[in-house]
Structure formats: C-alpha cells, structure tokens
Design a protein that fits this description.
With about 400 residues, the chain is an alpha+beta fold. It has two domains: about 140 residues, no CATH class; about 190 residues, no CATH class. About 40% of the residues lie in helices and about 15% in strands. The protein contains 16 helices and 13 strands. Strands 1-13-2-5-7-10 form a six-stranded antiparallel beta sheet. A hairpin with a 5-residue loop joins strand 8 and strand 9. The two termini are about 50 Å apart.
Length: about 400
C-alpha cells in the first residue's frame, strides 16, 4: 500500500480536494454521482472524543481437515461430508475507539446527493484506523509472546478494518451505563446510538482513491505518470510535461509545435493566464533558439541540475521527450518547493534569481515564476530583482508586462 504523503491520507470532499480532483470530472458530471459510478468510497470522520464504533464482522474459521470431519461424524447423527464444514463463518462484534474514518453506504451517499445532508447514516465495507506497531517484550507463563505497543513518533498510515456494518455509539452514555453496573447491557442497544447527521462538507476521500482516478484519466488521455510531488502546487509545469510527452514522445499534438499553446490552454486555461503560455510552449518544444526575445542567452547547461540536487540528479529530470530547458524547469520547481517548505516567508525574488542563474531571461523569468509558484512577481519583487542585478553590475530586462493601476496601489 502506498504510504501517506506529507499531507496525510485523507482529503475533504469540499476543500482542497475539490481543486485536486475536480479536473478529473467529465464536463457536467455531478461529483457524488461520479464517485458512486466509480465505486469510490466516501468517509465520515469519527469524533473519537465523543464516540465509539460498534463493529460487526464475520470471522472465518479454516476448513476442517479429514480427521476433524471423521471425529464430528462419529459424535453427530448428521453426515460430516456436508459442504458447510468446508467454510465456517461466525458473526462477531466489538466496541472500539480505534477507527478514525467510516465508509458510508450507498443509500447514505445518495441522500447526500439529493439533500447535501444525511441523518443517521449507515456504514459498510470497512473503516480506516491508524496502523499500530508492537514489539515483543518477553513471554508469559504459557510461552506466548508479550507485546507492547510502540510509542507514536510519526503520523501513522491508515489501514483497513473490515466490517459488515457499524454503528456510532455515544461514549458518555455507554460509560455511564457501565459505571452503574447495569446487567446485560449491550453496545448495540439503540439507547446508546449516537445522534449523527453528516453533511457534504464533512465528507472525506482517501488519497489512494484519488490517485486511482488520476491514473484512469492518464490511461484515457494518453498522458504519462508524473514523477514529481509538485503536481498540485504547479499545475502549469505538470501540463508542460504532459504536452512534451504528447508532442515529442507520441507526436500526437495537432499542428506540431504550433499546436502546443492551444493544447495547453485547452487542458489548463487557468494555469496559463497572463500570457504564460508563450513561455510554456517554447520549452515544450524539443529545441528552441536561445536568441528568441532578444539578447543571446546561450544554450542551457543541463549539468547544473546536479548542482541543484546532488550528483546523479540529472537522470531524474531529463527524459527522452523533454527539452534541456524543461528539464531545468522541473529541477528548479523541486528546488523551490523544498525551499518554501523550509522557509515559509522566502521571497519570489529568490526563485527569479535562480531561474536567471540557470540561463532564463526576460519575460521567461516572470512567466516561469508564475507557472512554478502560482503567483506573479509584484512591484516589490521586481524592485528587489532590479536592485540585485544592479549590484552585480547588470541591468534587468523586463520580466513582466507593465503593472495595472490596482497592482500599483
């Protein structure tokens, strides 16, 4: 199973996740209907401070061997050759505080699709619980291993807990009944059932299921798996990579080089605002004259990738279908997000300077800052960049169009 990413395993249905998977929806498709059709689970988070989960599941015992069947036949009037003896299942139930998410059943999801709320939801299939790890600390008097749960030192991944059905129990009411010593109390008694109403805003999706949907779209559109973690943070760079694969790997973009800009805008118009497609398309092309836009910049030094990410990093960023410029852009994007994760307030000027140091210039710099970071250089950024270049005895060429009135306020 894929491990949890640095963001964790679960995403809210109405939150960042919508930005992450809404592009996967066919035009006009209702999100809940789409997930039902694809059999993608939706989960409710269990409030573990207030609630317990009463879980019912089937326990399967191994088939009887011939000796066991013969013994049963000797003490029973019924033949032991019955097929029932080959698969014995018993229903078991338990009360647990370990399940963090429960999968909603189809009927509950349909109600959410109609009304955006569902009272008394039902659950099926499985829940998700944090994985537990143990170490053996010794043996008991019967020689069995004694296990102790390991100390939690990192966010644990989630594992499936199989169940046929589940009910959410009011923890306080259950504990009160136990303290009173009520005889014969059962966790499945309806008086302990918690009153739960779930709304669409409280639904969760599993990242692993989102990845499956992405892979389906990749297979359908003839895209290629993206090997970098910045896909959601830099969608423009992701689509440049896909365009390079379509153009240079599959020769499948209508119009060849001239069709790249329209292809990018068709698939991710928002990612290529502010005329950023003019820069994006030329680095999708396998070759481009470096004197475009004025001023001879010279060829890219692809070996600089190793300086950014250590020896051998070049092979992670240069593909048969990517230009040298795009390989450098991919490496610089990774550099930038690693830096931002360490230094949250780092200025975009640092990214612009890094691009210039690796052979990009003029409008390329402004466009690539936007494509990588998602934000354009503002007037303070440009002033800082001009000052930095001036200190080195140079003069900054225009890195973006003139600022609008609102941007200058």
């Amino acid at each position: 199973m894929k491990k949890a990413s640095r963001e964790g395993r679960m995403r809210q249905f109405r939150g960042e996740v919508r930005n992450e998977w809404q592009a996967l929806l066919p035009v006009g498709e209702d999100p809940i209907s789409y997930l039902l059709k694809k059999d993608i689970p939706l989960y409710l988070e269990v409030d573990q401070m207030r609630h317990l989960v009463h879980r019912t599941s089937k326990v399967e015992f191994p088939p009887m061997d011939e000796g066991q069947k013969k013994l049963l036949e000797e003490i029973s009037w019924e033949s032991a050759s019955s097929e029932d003896l080959d698969a014995i299942q018993l229903q078991a139930s338990n009360l647990t505080d370990g399940i963090a998410f429960l999968r909603l059943d189809t009927a509950s999801i349909e109600k959410l699709g109609h009304a955006e709320v569902c009272t008394s939801p039902n659950f099926m299939g499985w829940g998700l619980a944090p994985a537990r790890t143990y170490r053996v600390t010794g043996q008991d008097l019967r020689g069995r291993p004694v296990r102790k749960e390991e100390k939690i030192e990192a966010v644990r991944d989630l594992v499936k807990v199989e169940l046929e059905c589940a009910a959410i129990v009011d923890k306080e009411e259950w504990e009160k009944a136990n303290r009173r010593g009520e005889p014969g109390i059962r966790a499945d008694d309806h008086r302990f059932r918690a009153s739960v109403t779930v709304s669409v805003s409280e639904l969760f999706l599993d990242v692993l299921d989102i990845e499956k949907l992405k892979q389906e779209k990749i297979d359908l559109l003839g895209l290629v798996a993206y090997p970098f973690e910045h896909q959601e943070r830099a969608p423009g760079i992701y689509w440049m990579f896909q365009a390079a694969y379509r153009l240079n790997g599959l020769q499948a973009i209508v119009g060849g080089n001239t069709g790249v800009g329209p292809w990018l805008k068709q698939h991710a118009a928002k990612a290529f605002r502010y005329r950023a497609d003019r820069t994006a398309e030329k680095f999708v092309w396998m070759t481009v004259g470096r004197d475009q836009g004025g001023g001879k910049r010279g060829e890219f030094k692809i070996g600089q990738i190793d300086e950014l990410h250590g020896g051998g990093a070049y092979s992670r960023y240069k593909f048969d279908f990517t230009s040298d410029g795009l390989a450098l852009i991919l490496a610089i994007a990774d550099f930038w997000f690693e830096l931002k994760d360490r230094e949250l307030s780092v200025s975009r000027v640092v990214l612009a300077e890094k691009l210039m140091a690796h052979g990009f210039g003029g409008m390329e710099v402004g466009d690539l800052v936007y494509l990588i970071d998602g934000e354009r250089l503002d007037k303070d950024d440009v002033s800082g960049l001009e000052e930095s270049v001036r200190k080195r005895g140079g003069k900054l060429r225009a890195v973006r169009e003139k600022f609008g009135i609102k941007e200058l306020e």
